[in-house]
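Re-run with default settings, no changes from the original entry. Doing this only to confirm the output is reproducible before filing.
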Amino acid sequence: MTRRPFSTSPGYLQSIRGLHSLHALTVAGSDDSPEADAVRDGLDQYWYDLSKTEQDRITGLSADLFSISEPVKEPLPSNPQVQRKLDEAREATKSGNWDQALTLLRRWGQHVDPAKLSFLRGTVWHEAGDDRTANLFFEHASLLDPVTFQEFYLANLWQTDPERAREIAGDVLKSDRDFSPEVVVTAAHIQLFGIQGSIVVESHSIIEDLMSILKRVLVRVETEDHAKLYPNAGELLRLHAISILAECYDRLGDRRTAIRYLNDSPSIRPDDDAILVKRGILRYGVESGAVDDLQRAAELGSHHPWPYFYLAHHALVEGRYQDCLAMCERGLALTVPDEVRANLHEWLAISRAELNYPADRVRSAFEEAVRLAPDADHIRDNLASFEKALADPTGPKPDWIKLKASTVQAFGRSEYLPPLRPMPVAA
C-alpha cells in the first residue's frame, strides 16, 4: 500500500484545527461557551466539502479527543483477541493504513493503558504527517506517564510549536533535578538551539549553565534506573548529552575540548551520523581524520548537507572534479542556507568547466551562485575568469579562487546543531 500523508487541503485542515480548539476549550471547562459554539459553526462550514473518508476520520478524532478530556479509566483486561487486534493496528501503522490503525485503536483501546494508547494514537498521526494532532495525544501520554513519554512529547513539540517547547524547556532547566535525564537533555538541546546565532558574550552564561546541567545529567545516567528502561537507553542518552556538551564547548570557542568529548566517550559509536558530522566539521582543515568522518557520514546516507558540502570542497581543492560534482549534487538535494547553496553551485560550475561541460550549463550554475550570494566577490571573479577563458580558447585556463578550509569550516560551525534524539519508547 502507498503511504500517503493525510490531506493538507484548507477545508480539511480548518476542520482538524477546529477540533483542536474544541478540545482545548473542553479541557478548560468551556465546552458550553459561546466561543465553543462559534467553533462548531465553523466546522459545519467545510463539512460537506470533505470526502467520506475525511468525514469519518474527523468524527473518529472527535471521539478520541473527547476520550482524553475525560477522567482516566483503568483499562479492561486483555485477551488473545485484543492482542491480535493491537498487532493489526501496529501493522496498519507500519504499512501506512492510518485510518484502519486509528479505527482499531478506537475499538480495542479500552484494553490498553491510557498513556500508552495516547502514545500509539499520536504515533499514527505523526506517521501520517500531522504532528500538531499527534502532539495532543503525546501531551496526554506525557501527563499520565512523564517518565516514559515526556521526553518524546517535548522533542516533537519542538517541531510544531517551538515557542511553547522553549517555555517548557526553560521550566525544566530551572529545576533539572526534578525531571528525568532524558527530559533534561532534550530541554538543554532546545535551549541551545534557541540561542543559535546569538552573540557569544550574550549567551556565555546560558551556555555555562547548560554545561553544568549536562555534566550532572551524565552522572545521573549512571545511577538512575529509569534511564535504562529500554534497550541501550543509557548509551543513547549519554550520546545525546555528550553531543550537546561538545556543542557548548564549541560555542565558547574551545574546539579541542569539544573534539575530546566526541572522541573519548565510550558511548560514541562508529556509525553515528550526528557525531560523525559534528566531529568532521570541528576537525575540517585542522585534523586529517575529518575527511574520514565526513566520508563515513556520506556513505551512511546522511540527511545533513554538511558531509557533502565539505567533501565537495575537499575534492575541489584536490582537483578531483568528478567527485566534487557528485558531492555538490548530493548537497544541493538537501535543505541548506543560501550562502552554502551558493558555494555548492559555484563549485558545481567549476567542476563542470573542468570536465568540459557545455558553456551554458557552467554559466547557469555560476549565475545561480551569484543570485544566492550577490556580495560574494570570489564567485563573480570565478565567473569572470570562466567567461574570459571561453572568449579566448587559446589563452590560459581559469585560475580559480578556492576558499580556504578555515573559511569553509566556519559555515558548519555556525549553522549545524546535532538533531534531537527522542528516546526509543516501548510500544
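Residues 10-141 form one domain. The radius of gyration is 26 Å.
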